[in-house]
Design brief:
The chain has 13 helices and eleven strands. The chain has 384 residues and is α/β, with parallel strands linked by helices. The protein binds pyridoxal-5'-phosphate.
Length: 384
């Protein structure tokens, strides 16, 4: 049994993907070829965003808006600690300081009340300037964007939605970019919308942010508005207007993603069928089955339960041929290299408790009922 069965999807669309890849190889436009632009157009349309830009991975996707907004030394960026390390990692990249915020115990996403308290705390201390909030759509479900964006507005902060696990999720019918100044995702193969290697994207409804990020992902190349009304003696292709980076989405990956995006809505439905069936089969047998925020649709990057004897349950599952995984055993603020950064008031007790009890079960859109019953029965037969 696979934790995530990527080959099942491949069986469904391998002909289309093979043809799309062969076409790119044949045509030879490997860097920023036409498939990249076409995929960006489709991605923007899918998520009801004005602008979508491909980039090299989901980590650099978060760095791009920070760079575009010139976030740097002395600035505070508020983010959860119960997430993949990349969420917090990009903040020191630009010289700013992460400030870690606790999570809601039922959704595992950023706790808006603790966020507000953390911003007030940083303001009162007067050492750092609050600049940005990074909310995470952990395990696939949307963060509480109405509450978080209201707090961002109140304090004059920018909001990034790290939707690497949640791309495709909605809240009251809207995608995270509806509330966020920028929303990011990862196309790492195991994510709900994955490619065949590394890839990422950043979405925004702000034209100026989009233009600056487009420049930054190609070494700070001159944009239209950089050049407008000026004359140059040389090719403007070699003008570098800002210190950027190399963070492009490969044409081959874009071609693969076009085929995968075509079936993504259908896969989100299938993931929700699997999750509902898990909830029905496991409720009452474990400490908790996942709860999704009211009005939210999760894309179920993970199906995560809690158990007080997690190690025992995992050993029992393994003995029954069922793989499981713990996301995340160590919250970021508990990692040595991040331990010097500030925490919101009274620390992060919920994040620390969840790290001890969560365990994720196999989840993918092609799981058949027989396989799922085997998993459900294995959990149910464990008597702690
Ligand atoms: C996977 C992930 C990222 C990073 O994506 P990469 O493409 O691996 O760089 C960032 N944030 C979260 C929450 C993730 O799960």
């Amino acid at each position: 049994m696979q934790f995530i069965d990527l080959q099942a999807q491949r069986a469904r669309i391998s002909d289309k993907i093979n043809a799309a890849v062969a076409k790119v190889i044949e045509e030879g436009r490997y860097i920023m070829g036409p498939e990249v632009k076409e995929f960006e157009r489709q991605l923007a349309e899918f998520s009801q965003a004005e602008h979508a830009l491909g980039c090299a991975n989901g980590t650099e996707a978060i760095a791009l808006p920070l760079l575009a907004w010139e976030v740097g030394p002395g600035d505070a960026v508020f983010c959860p600690s119960f997430t993949f390390a990349a969420t917090g990692e990009v903040v020191p990249w630009v010289g700013a300081s992460p400030v870690f915020v606790d999570i809601d115990p039922s959704t595992y996403n950023m706790d808006p009340a603790h966020l507000d308290a953390a911003i007030e705390m940083v303001k009162a201390e007067g050492k750092l300037t609050p600049k940005v909030i990074i909310a995470v759509d952990l395990f696939g479900q949307p963060a509480d964007y109405p509450a978080i964006s209201a707090i961002a507005k109140k304090h004059g902060l920018k909001l990034i939605a790290d939707s690497a696990q949640g791309f495709g999720c909605t809240l009251n019918g809207n995608h995270p970019v509806h509330w966020a100044d920028a929303a990011t995702t990862s196309f790492f193969p195991a994510k709900p919308l994955g490619c065949y290697g590394d890839g990422g994207a950043v979405l925004t409804n702000d034209a100026a942010t989009a233009e600056r990020m487009d420049s930054l992902r190609v070494h700070g190349k001159a944009t239209k508005s950089d050049i407008e009304g000026r004359t140059f003696e040389h090719d403007t292709k070699y003008l570098n207007m800002r210190v950027g980076m190399n963070s492009r989405l490969d044409t081959i990956q874009a071609a693969i993603l076009i085929e995968k995006l075509a079936i993504f809505a259908d896969e989100i439905e299938a993931r929700n069928r699997v999750a509902t069936r898990y909830n029905e089969g496991l409720d009452g047998y474990v400490e908790s089955v996942p709860a999704v925020i009211d009005g939210g649709v999760s894309v179920w990057a993970q199906y995560t339960i809690e158990h007080k004897n997690r190690a025992g349950l995992q050993a029992h599952l393994k003995a029954n041929g069922v793989p499981s995984a713990v996301y995340y055993p160590i919250p970021i603020h508990k990692q040595d290299v991040y331990s010097r950064y500030p925490l919101g008031p009274n620390g992060l007790p919920v994040s620390e408790a969840k790290a001890e009890s969560v365990v994720s079960l196999p989840m993918h859109p092609y799981m058949d009922e027989e396989t799922q019953d085997q998993i459900i029965n294995a959990v149910r037969s464990f008597n702690a």
